[in-house]
Structures are given as structure tokens and as C-alpha cells.
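Study this one:
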Amino acid sequence: MSDAPRARVALVTGSSRGLGRATALELARRGFDVAVHYVRGSDAADAVVAQIRAEGGRAEAFGADVADADACVDLVKRVQEGLGGLDVLVNNAGVTRDTLALRMKREDWETVLDTNLSSAFHLSKAALRGMLRGGWGRVINVSSVVAVMGNVGQANYVAAKAGLLGLTKALASEYAAKGVTVNAVAPGFIESDMTADLTEELRAGYLARIPAGRFGRPEEVATAIAFLVSDDAAYVNGQTLTVDGGMVMR
């Protein structure tokens, strides 16, 4: 029987597409076993798993509605049992329900907060227990530049993403001495389904606010996350790495 240590395991929520997909692929290429999470419809997640396996990595797909606290706990348990542990948690899952605050329905507020913020707390709480026992762990919360800037029509989304920054600092303070770091990334405008649907006028307006003169690529955020979960970032804790082409400077 081999005495070789097992590969570290990473769970990336919302990783069947977009930024989550890019992150799952990047971590797999860096030697992590990856739990690819999806909420509805496994086809896209299965495609990510297939790509990781085709490149020589190990991955499994896991479905769960992370807006439900019990489902978060169950998801962590299934990943630990299915892949042999859980060392890295990337809280990336998110939804939007955009409208002006006076028009925002209670359910729109609660859905976004439950999915984008509360899920990160419940998943982190469940995952931290194993990380602390192992003496090593990484939690990455995917926030947004709107957490700092605000944005019209996104009171729920902005509140959730700002809450992630506070959660990051609280957890980072509590568990750093045990070998677990907690950091956040705050992407700016990233090429995605959302930006693809922008009108030319809106697209031009947003680009004018970005010194880099372009939207970012999911892979550029994924490599930032990969750094934060690496051993090279062992002394980086409680920080927010903004990946926005300089947008928040303006």
C-alpha cells in the first residue's frame, strides 16, 4: 500500500460555468482533486468533470441548493466522503435579482442573501471542522467590486458581497493560528453571460471606467484564487484581492 499523501481536495461552488468553471479547471491543473458543484442540471458540471479527467485530473460532480443551510452541511459531507477530504473551499455560487430597492420584493432580497452570503457561512462552518483537524485549509470568498463601489438596482447583491468581506475578516481572525487562511477576491467586470447581454451603450460606459480598457477573463480571476489557496500564500490572511483592471481606482 502506498504511503503517498492524498491530493488536496477543493470544492468550488457554482463551478459548472463561468468563473467557477475556470477556477475548477485551474485548481485541477495545479494538482487538486476537485468537487464541481451545480444547483440545477448536471450536464454542464459533468462536462467540467469530463474535461478535468481528460487532462489527467480527478473530479466529481455534486449537486446541492446552497441557499439551504442543511444542504450546505450535506454537500460538505458528501464531498469529504466522495473525494477523501476537503482542504479548500471556494465560495463562488451566486445569483442576482436586480431591481431598485423600492421595487425589490422580500423574496428577491432573501434569495440573494441566502445564496450569496449565508451559503458561504454554512459551508465554511461545515468545512472548517475538517480543516482544523488536518492543520491546513483555505477558504476563498468570491465577492465583487460592487461591495466597495455600490451599484444601482443591486441592493441585495451589494449587501451580500459586502457581507462576504466582513465574513472573510472574521473567519480569518478566528482560525489563522490553526493553519487555516481565509481570503476574498473581488472581481470587476468579467466576460460572462451577464456582460454578453449588455447593450453597446452600457458596455462602452463600463469600459470607460476601467483603466485596462477591457473586461477581465474568468481565467484571470481563477489564477488569483489559485495563488491564494497555494502554500506560497500561507502568510496572506483576511485580505481582499481585487481583480478589476483598476476599476475601483476610478
Q: What stands out?
A: Strands lie at 9-12, 33-38, 59-63, 88-91, 137-142, 180-187, 240-243.
